[in-house]
């Protein structure tokens, strides 16, 4: 397993694209976070905004780059024919998948931590100027605050889980364009569909089981009880999606010819 | 060029996965559209728990859903004629959210008129809701106006004297400061107006609306209002009958006459009905599945180019036709045409089918005119086609599928999500739907925004800042830029 991990880590590390993608994860996440923090204002106590959620809006964009990273870790091998070499060297395919999962998780964890910390710092600086003040019932964003810490840690884990989900999907379908289309479709379509469903019960159900909306509920720090799903439970839903995708990917990988 | 088109079409046709992709795009568009009515049950209960009778909302002469509730003091007029009156006072009561007690009466309401509280004179084709009319009125905050057939609104000069003259099908409105010198406001042509119409005085007051910023842009909340207006110098004389058109009885409408002076109380509105999300099924809601279709189409269109690079076919392609710009153009034409047809088929299946299920499920379906329906359906197909060309161009620039697909999907879909369902305020949402490729979804907007109706007109409510064609042009601009860049890069770069 150590050898497999070492091999996957070397492959990912030495790809020119990887470092650029990691920089991109941080850059796009923080950029959207800055834009959202600058755009959202809070005029009074009842503005209904959640400062942690606002400053972490960029996760919705950063996840797309994490998905590219994870998809390329698998699909890149198939398109270049590297996969056959990999499986010749390491015939235990599930070990290869596990090693890939570990390597992708590590990278997502590192990039996600930097992106989330930077987003929180931006929110801490920008939001008090937009009315998120003590007079309106908001404390300055701080990781010493339990819910904010949960939102920050949860957002990093969210990116890791999106990476694992993408890895599973890519392993199952192999082609990078199809894999990324599937991943982004599953993540992004539900909020759009939910908006036209008039029935509040179904809307709630969608928000409870959709990977993006359930997963991002971990960012809630205000009015947590009113969320369709509790923060950690929501992240658990995304974890279930990731596990499911990895299982399917793993089974397909064992059964199919490379 | 013809050979090139033929070659590219053959390439597209013979890759089985791409044809299947187009079928999947159609299927997803239809199936996800059906999810809306399938996942919604309309339960309707009257105030005493009894099942309520489903009433279709009144529609105006142009087919749009309208509000048509007001207090009307009227008498018949046969042939040509004139009505005039002076509005001596206009006062109102409103209930800020939650302060009014349930039930009948105005207890707990505060004094104040709404910007579009209306009192004036009206010529109307009977007292049926949704019938043709022309009216001249004093408003609570928008001066003297002449309005006709719900959607037409013209600003007038100062009142308080109002006059409306019928000549055949033409109604001409005037206002005056003193009752002797009249200023013409405008004229309305009510085609097919019968010889006998109802003329008279009216007062109405729309719901109190506060637009607040919250999750997903703006939301409006409010409460009922009522208005009381005084009239004198009413001409012609004769017998007047009072009637609450639209059956608004909860806020004690009525009228009193003391000699020459009339006092009317009423509430409601005479205006196009502005629907927020959830007030009824719009035609664009039947096409929500087009987002799934879009993702599939972007994947296929990107692979149409990146696939050649991956398999090395691009070298053969360029060896056969060294004019690379033409190859790109031929690919763009083929993928654009194929996706346009795919989108058109998807829309032509999805719209009537989803509409049918919405009606079966008892939805309030908001009617649209045939031109609007065609514009929405062709517009969606065109949107998909241009998105495909954009994906092709980005695929040419990036050469790697994953990056290109992600870039295009994120550029089109993410701004829409952020504008419609996120923490961003209405201002940011409008910026996103004005300057990003997501502006193109304006081409799906079927309900126009009316300045004479106070409502929340944000992207989250389904109202885009740009007109349908201008929004679509934004996406075309991005596609043209990407295509231009791809053209330059293709010429300079080694294959």
Describe, in short, the structure shown:
Chain A is an all-alpha fold.
Key words describing this protein structure:
heterodimer, A: 258 residues, mainly alpha, 11 helices, B: 495 residues, alpha+beta, eight-stranded antiparallel sheet, seven-stranded antiparallel sheet, 38% helix
Task: Give the SSE layout.
The complex is a heterodimer of chains A (258) and B (495).
Chain A: H1 2-14, H2 16-39, H3 51-55, H4 59-80, H5 82-89, H6 93-126, H7 146-173, H8 176-196, H9 200-209, H10 211-216, H11 231-255
Chain B: H1 2-14, H2 16-38, E1 66-68, E2 70-78, E3 81-94, E4 110-111, E5 118-124, E6 133-139, E7 144-148, E8 152-155, E9 161-167, E10 170-176, E11 182-189, E12 196-204, E13 208-214, E14 217-223, E15 225-235, E16 241-245, E17 254-258, E18 261-266, E19 270-272, H3 290-311, H4 313-320, H5 324-360, H6 370-398, H7 401-420, H8 426-435, H9 468-492
Antiparallel strand pairs in B: 1-19, 2-12, 2-16, 3-4, 3-9, 3-15, 5-6, 5-12, 6-7, 7-8, 9-10, 10-11, 13-14, 15-18, 17-18
Helix pairs in contact in B: 1-5, 2-3, 2-5, 3-4, 3-5, 3-6, 3-7, 5-6, 6-7, 6-9, 7-8
Describe it.
The complex is a heterodimer of chains A (258) and B (495). Chain A has 258 residues and is an all-alpha fold. In chain A, 76% of the residues lie in helices and 0% in strands. Chain A is built from 11 helices and no strands. Chain A has helices spanning 2-14, 16-39, 51-55, 59-80, 82-89, 93-126, 146-173, 176-196, 200-209, 211-216, 231-255. The longest helix of chain A is centred in the middle third of the chain and has 34 residues, at 93-126. Chain A is globular and about 65 Å long. The model of chain A has no long low-confidence stretch (mean pLDDT 87). Chain B is α+β, with helices and mostly antiparallel strands and 495 residues long. In chain B, 38% of the residues lie in helices and 25% in strands. Chain B has 9 helices and 19 strands. Chain B has helices at residues 2-14, 16-38, 290-311, 313-320, 324-360, 370-398, 401-420, 426-435, 468-492; strands at 66-68, 70-78, 81-94, 110-111, 118-124, 133-139, 144-148, 152-155, 161-167, 170-176, 182-189, 196-204, 208-214, 217-223, 225-235, 241-245, 254-258, 261-266, 270-272. In chain B, the strands form 4 sheets. In chain B, strands 3, 4, 9, 10, 11, 15, 17 and 18 form an 8-stranded antiparallel β-sheet that branches. Chain B has a 7-stranded antiparallel β-sheet with strand order 8-7-6-5-12-2-16, with no helix packed on it. In chain B, strand 7 and strand 8 (152-155) form a beta hairpin. The longest helix of chain B has 37 residues, at 324-360. Chain B is elongated. The interface between A and B is large, with 45 and 49 residues.
């Amino acid at each position: 397993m150590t050898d497999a991990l070492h091999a996957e880590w070397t492959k990912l590390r030495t790809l020119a694209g990887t470092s650029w993608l990691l920089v991109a994860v941080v850059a796009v996440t923080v950029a959207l976070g800055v834009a959202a923090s600058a755009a959202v204002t809070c005029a009074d106590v009842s503005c209904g905004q959640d400062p942690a959620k606002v400053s972490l809006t960029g996760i919705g964009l950063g996840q797309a780059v994490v998905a590219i990273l994870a998809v390329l870790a698998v699909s890149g091998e198939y398109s270049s024919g590297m996969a056959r070499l990999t499986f010749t060297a390491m015939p235990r395919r599930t070990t290869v998948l596990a090693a890939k999962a570990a390597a992708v998780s590590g990278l997502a964890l590192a990039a996600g931590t930097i992106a989330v910390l930077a987003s929180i710092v931006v929110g801490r600086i920008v939001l008090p100027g937009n009315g998120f003040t003590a007079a309106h019932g908001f404390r300055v964003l701080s990781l010493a605050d339990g819910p904010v810490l949960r939102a920050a840690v949860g957002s990093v884990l969210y990116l890791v889980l999106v990476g694992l989900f993408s890895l599973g999907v890519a392993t199952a379908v192999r082609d990078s364009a199809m894999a990324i289309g599937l991943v982004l479709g599953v993540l992004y379509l539900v909020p759009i569909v939910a908006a036209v469903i008039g029935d509040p019960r179904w809307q709630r159900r969608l928000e409870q089981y959709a990977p993006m909306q359930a997963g991002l509920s971990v960012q809630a720090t205000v009015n947590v009880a009113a969320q369709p799903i509790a923060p950690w439970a929501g992240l658990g839903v995304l974890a279930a999606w990731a596990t499911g995708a990895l299982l399917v990917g793993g089974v397909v990988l064992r059964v199919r010819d490379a | 060029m013809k050979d090139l088109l033929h070659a590219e079409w053959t390439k597209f046709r013979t890759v089985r996965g791409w044809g299947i992709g187009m079928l999947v795009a159609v299927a997803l568009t239809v199936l996800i559209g059906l999810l809306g009515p399938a996942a919604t049950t309309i339960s309707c209960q009257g105030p005493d728990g009894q099942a309520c009778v489903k009433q279709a909302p009144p529609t105006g002469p142009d087919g749009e859903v309208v509000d048509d509730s007001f207090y009307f003091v009227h008498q018949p007029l046969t042939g040509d004629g004139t009505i005039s009156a002076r509005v001596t006072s206009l006062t109102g009561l409103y209930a800020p959210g939650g302060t009014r007690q349930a039930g009948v009466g105005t207890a707990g309401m505060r004094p104040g008129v709404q910007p579009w509280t209306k009192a004036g004179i009206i010529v109307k084709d009977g007292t049926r809701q949704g019938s043709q009319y022309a009216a001249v009125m004093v408003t609570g905050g928008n001066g003297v106006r002449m309005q006709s057939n719900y959607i037409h609104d013209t600003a007038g000069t100062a009142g308080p004297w109002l006059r409306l003259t019928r000549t055949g099908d033409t109604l001409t409105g005037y206002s005056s400061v003193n009752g002797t010198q009249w200023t013409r406001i405008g004229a309305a042509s009510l085609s097919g107006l019968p010889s006998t119409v109802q003329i008279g005085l009216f007062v109405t007051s729309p719901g109190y609306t506060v637009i607040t910023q919250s999750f997903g842009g703006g939301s409006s909340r409010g409460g009922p209002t009522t208005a009381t207006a005084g009239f004198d110098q009413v001409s012609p004389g004769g017998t007047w009958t009072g009637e609450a058109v639209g059956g608004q009885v909860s806020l004690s409408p009525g009228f009193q006459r003391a000699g020459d002076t009339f006092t009317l109380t009423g509430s409601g509105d005479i205006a196009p009905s502005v629907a927020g999300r959830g007030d009824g099924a719009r035609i664009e809601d039947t096409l929500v599945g087009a987002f799934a279709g879009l993702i599939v189409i972007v994947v296929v269109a990107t692979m149409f180019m990146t696939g050649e690079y991956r398999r090395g076919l691009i070298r053969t392609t360029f060896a056969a036709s060294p004019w690379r710009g033409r190859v790109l153009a031929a690919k763009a034409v083929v993928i654009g045409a194929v996706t346009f047809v795919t989108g058109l088929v998807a829309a032509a299946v999805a719209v009537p089918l989803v509409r049918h299920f919405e009606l079966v499920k008892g939805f309030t379906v908001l009617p649209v005119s045939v031109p609007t329906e065609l514009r929405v359906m062709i517009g969606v197909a065109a949107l998909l086609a241009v998105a495909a060309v954009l994906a092709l161009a980005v695929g040419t620039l990036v050469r790697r599928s994953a990056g290109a697909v992600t870039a295009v999907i994120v550029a089109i879909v993410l701004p829409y999500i952020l504008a419609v369902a996120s923490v961003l305020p209405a201002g940011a949402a409008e910026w996103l739907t004005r300057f990003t490729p997501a502006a193109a979804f304006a081409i799906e907007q079927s309900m126009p925004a009316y300045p004479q109706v106070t409502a929340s007109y944000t992207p989250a409510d389904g109202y885009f800042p740009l007109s349908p064609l201008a929004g679509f042009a934004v996406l075309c601009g991005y596609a043209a830029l990407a295509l231009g860049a791809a053209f330059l890069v293709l010429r300079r770069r080694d294959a």
